[in-house]
From TrEMBL:
This is Methyltransferase NSUN6. It comes from Leptonychotes weddellii. Belongs to the class I-like SAM-binding methyltransferase superfamily. RsmB/NOP family. GO terms for biological process: RNA methylation. Residues 324-570 form the SAM-dependent MTase RsmB/NOP-type domain.
Length: 573
């Protein structure tokens, strides 16, 4: 059932999307009323989380069964002995699925409140904790230890530091405040390095006292204590080292924490993940691995940051604590083979890059490009920590990756000669309108429609770099017709030597009408549309009675909005 309002969009954006979903082909086939119902259902689904948490296992380091056993033990602790099923996907053998329980209707709202930004609120519903930067408002008398209700400011109208807010807000759940209102809004100490554990400064709700949200998601985070198995020898150029006078008793030998690093001219910190080592002599040290949050994720500690623990057990066997199912599907559709040379043209944040290398058994060459240097460094760190030697990441603009002269580059750096790659993944920059949960998108129509030209530039470069007989996979995490089916129609017109290919595995639905593609061509596409299934209430009792086949089917359908097209290049250009 629907418990949140539909995603809030600018009127011009909603009108634009509606025109795409109610185009002439769709209306003539399904009727105006049904087309409009499906569109409204989609907007409603976008504000709610998917029905399953997806975990991709790094099979380069561990077996799926071993990680499944570790997760089972952890979930037993999180859910007080309740048996929550962990399913291995039948078509994606390295993917595990954990059902999301909710919505829970017995959570009593408290008089004491905290209001967080909309993007922070979205992340909370996906299992993240709340940190000080994400908090907009807190009740006047809020003290550490208070049970409080957490709300999302979906309209962005709450003033920072407000003591109360009566505007539009959405209830997310309850938690226990680790800080008082005064501590939250007092600012951070004027120190070069400020390192405090999650429970003491960085986090409002966390540790064992996590937010009790309306949707109960498994949390594969620092609650699984890593066990040190080897000394750390990391390149000093990639990390920041700090000496500590004090490490709180609650920290383990190696502890995940958010760190603020202040420079002489900086007023805002650089957040990162700290590995802090306690020495018997009292001398302590910390290593800070910088992380680079996605746009709008302010105040949220990202679950993927736990990849820094991959040198240790048991988290060393997980690639990323939480993924979206279609993100795993697209790499399997690419079907990388050992010994091949593969290009990930827009690689950040790097999850698909490492997945490609793992599927190739780390045999071959995976080139990852991104034009933002911080994100490239993160890809390198992930590859290092996962022990994947086939990955080479470069800070380079993908639109300029084609070498215009024919002089061979002996170093193997971009730009590259034409027809250099066996397979290319173009997970294109997009409007991201398929992400869930997303209660609000403040983008203008100009911003939403700005991606199509860039996608075409990147696609043109990808085609030139692909060998004859090579495979090109194009994907987005958006729902717009212009960025998906219209791009496929344009590609087939522009590059007649490209052919659409059937996809394996075929988990999503067929493409959407309206771009002039034939029914046969639409069947060769994959569009993940969460509106095809109704929003459901899930509790422990219903999970006990559910068939595995039905749960897998639901996980395949009730995910984020996503699109995949697979092409083969039939001849040389």
């Amino acid at each position: 059932m629907s418990i949140f309002p539909k995603i809030s969009l600018r009127l011009e954006v909603e009108k634009y999307l509606k025109e795409g979903f109610m185009n002439k082909e769709v209306v003539s086939t399904f009727g105006k009323q049904e087309a409009e119902r499906k569109f409204e259902t989609l907007l409603n689904h976008l504000s709610h989380p998917p029905s399953f948490t997806t975990v991709r296992v790094n099979t380069h380091l561990a077996s799926v069964q071993h990680v499944k056993d570790l997760l089972f033990d952890e979930l037993q602790k999180q859910f007080n002995g309740l048996s929550v099923p962990i399913l291995q996907h039948p078509d994606l053998q390295d993917v595990l699925l954990i059902p999301v329980i909710g919505p829970r209707k017995n959570i009593k709202k408290q008089h004491c409140e905290a209001v967080v930004g909309a993007q922070c609120g979205n992340a909370v519903l996906r299992g993240a904790h709340v940190y000080v930067p994400g908090i907009v408002s807190a009740s006047k008398l809020m003290k550490a230890g208070d049970v409080i209700s957490v709300y999302s400011d979906i309209k962005g109208k709450c003033k920072k530091g407000a003591k109360e807010f009566d505007g539009t807000k959405v209830f997310l759940g309850n938690g226990i405040s680790e800080l008082s209102r005064k501590e939250i809004f007092s600012g951070l100490p004027e120190l070069k390095y400020v390192i405090k554990c999650l429970e003491e400064i960085c986090i409002l709700f966390g540790g064992s006292r996590k937010i009790k949200t309306i949707y109960l998601r498994s949390s594969v985070d620092s609650s699984i204590t890593p066990q040190l198995t080897a000394d750390v020898d990391m390149p000093k150029t990639e990390f920041i080292h700090a000496e500590l006078d004090y490490i709180p008793d609650s920290w383990n030998s190696f502890h995940v924490a958010t760190v603020w690093v202040f420079g002489s001219s900086s007023t805002s910190g650089v957040e990162g993940v700290a590995l802090c080592k306690r020495c018997p002599t009292g001398h302590s040290s910390a290593i800070l691995l910088p992380w680079y949050p996605d746009t709008g994720a302010s105040g949220v500690f990202p679950e993927w940051a736990l990849c820094v623990l991959l040198l240790w057990q048991p988290l060393g066997q997980l690639q990323v604590p939480s993924w979206n199912l279609p993100s795993a599907v697209v790499t399997h559709v690419l079907d990388p083979q050992p010994g091949e040379k593969i290009l990930d043209l827009c690689a950040a944040p790097g999850g698909k890059t490492t997945h490609i290398a793992a599927l190739m058994h780390d045999q071959g060459e995976v080139i990852a490009l991104d034009k933002i240097s911080n994100k490239v460094e993160k890809i390198k760190q992930n590859a290092l920590l996962l022990g994947l030697n086939s990955i080479k990441a470069f800070c380079f603009d993908g639109t300029k990756a084609l070498k215009l002269n024919t002089v061979k580059d002996a170093e193997g750096k971009p730009p590259f000669l034409p027809e250099s790659f066996d397979r290319i993944l173009l997970d294109a920059p997009c409007s991201g309108m398929g992400q869930r949960p997303n209660m609000v998108c403040s983008w203008t129509l100009k911003e939403v429609t700005s991606y199509q030209p860039l996608q075409r530039k990147l696609f043109t470069v990808a085609v030139e770099l692909l060998k004859p007989g090579g495979v090109l996979v194009y994907s987005t995490c958006t729902i717009t017709l212009a960025e998906n089916e219209e791009q496929v129609a344009w590609a087939l017109r522009t590059f007649p030597y490209l052919q659409l290919q059937p996809q394996e595995p075929q988990i999503g639905g067929e493409g959407m009408m309206g771009a002039g593609l034939s029914l046969e061509q639409l069947k060769q596409l994959q569009r993940f549309d969460p509106s095809v299934v109704p929003l459901r209430d899930t509790d422990i009792d219903s999970l006990r009675d559910a068939r595995i086949e039905d749960m897998i089917w639901l996980a395949n359908k009730d995910c984020i909005g996503f699109f995949i097209a697979k092409f083969i290049k039939c001849k040389s250009t």
